[in-house]
């Protein structure tokens, strides 16, 4: 059994009961029994647990109790429920998260073709899919993620090496590209700080600007004295056919937004309105659960990091500078 499996087993042995894989990861790293340079340790733990159950069935030392929640198998326990749970589970990893796991654990620092990555993902059972062309799906999702992160000024996870080969950016030695990434991360951090330093009134105006850039119409920043808990209203129009009225509360906070705020926003919604909370900080677990409560109107949540990403994507508070950097490429087009 490798180090991560030893650490998982130790954590679950010491625990009072089943744990979510995120908590297992936290305790495994804190115990010092497992050390990793990987950028997604939680995905690695989830992959090992789900892979063990799917691969070994009743012989696996682990059992799945709920979505993302695992425990140790007990003597005489039936694997029927666990197997059925795994087969019908909708919490399998995304293609891109699975690709990160495969590259970190099996590539030995060398780029892999997306077909080989796909084969390993399917072999490990990391992704549940009915697609007849999973290789094409992975290739498309890798490219889409890279394009989206470039637009938002976010650090890339994948490095395209040509001819369908992909590696991880974290493998690359420091150099010009490393300096660019470091510079961009510094700009992101400073932009976040500047947004947090705005007055509440200016922050609401900024949120209005962002909504307009996102395609909202009829954007209106409400009066401070009579906003009823709603700071900005607007209508998202899609293709002149879909019109969604949105009521937004802007929270320029240092502390995490709690569940009562979500309830307040929901109670302030007008007829046919949907709610959205935008904060410079983040949301508590209770707030996220309340926002998605099945028997209530869902409320969208946007934390500080997501806010900064959208500001960068739409050129609000930042500007892009472009320099031509030459790099060798293939002389003949090859199969991707």
TrEMBL record:
**Pfam families in the cross-refs:** HARE-HTH (PF05066), Mrr_cat (PF04471)
**Which InterPro entries does the protein's record reference?**
Asxl_HARE-HTH, Restrct_endonuc-II-like, Restrct_endonuc_IV_Mrr, RNAP_delta_N_dom_sf, tRNA_endonuc-like_dom_sf, Type_IV_Methyl-Rstrct_Enzyme
Task: Please give the Gene Ontology molecular function terms for this protein.
Answer: DNA binding; restriction endodeoxyribonuclease activity
Alphabetical keyword list: Transcription
Q: Which domain of life is it from?
A: Bacteria
Q: What region holds the HTH HARE-type domain?
A: 2-75, 93-171
From the Swiss-Prot or TrEMBL record, give the protein name. Answer: HTH domain-containing protein
Organism this protein belongs to: Aeoliella straminimaris
């Amino acid at each position: 059994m490798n180090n991560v499996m030893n650490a998982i087993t130790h954590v679950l042995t010491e625990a009072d009961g089943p744990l979510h894989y995120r908590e297992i990861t936290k305790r495994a790293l804190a115990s010092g029994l497992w050390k990793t340079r990987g950028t997604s340790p939680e995905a690695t733990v989830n992959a090992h647990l789900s892979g063990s159950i799917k691969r070994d069935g009743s012989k696996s030392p682990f059992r799945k109790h709920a979505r993302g929640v695992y425990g140790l198998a007990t003597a005489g326990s039936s694997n029927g429920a666990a197997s059925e749970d795994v087969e019908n589970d909708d919490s399998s990893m995304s293609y891109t998260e699975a690709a990160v796991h495969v590259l970190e654990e099996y590539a030995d620092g060398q780029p892999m073709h997306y077909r080989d990555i796909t084969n390993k993902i399917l072999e490990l059972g990391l992704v549940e899919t009915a697609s007849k062309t999973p290789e094409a799906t992975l290739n498309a999702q890798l490219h889409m993620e890279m394009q989206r992160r470039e637009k938002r000024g976010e650090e890339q996870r994948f490095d395209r090496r040509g001819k369908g080969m992909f590696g991880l950016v974290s493998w690359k030695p420091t150099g010009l590209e490393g300096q660019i990434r470091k510079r961009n991360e510094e700009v992101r951090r400073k932009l976040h700080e500047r947004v947090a330093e705005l007055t509440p009134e200016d922050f609401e105006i900024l949120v209005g600007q962002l909504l307009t850039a996102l395609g909202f119409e009829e954007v209106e920043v409400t009066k401070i004295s009579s906003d009823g808990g709603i700071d900005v209203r607007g209508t998202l129009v899609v293709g002149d056919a879909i019109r969604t009225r949105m009521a937004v509360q802007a929270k320029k906070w240092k502390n995490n937004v709690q569940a009562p705020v979500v309830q307040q926003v929901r109670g302030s919604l007008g007829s046919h309105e949907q709610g959205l909370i935008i904060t410079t900080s983040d949301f508590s677990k209770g707030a996220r659960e309340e926002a998605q409560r099945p028997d209530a109107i869902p409320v969208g949540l946007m934390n500080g990091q997501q806010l900064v990403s959208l500001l960068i994507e739409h050129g609000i508070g930042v500007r892009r500078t472009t320099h031509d950097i030459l790099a060798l490429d293939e002389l003949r087009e090859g199969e991707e």
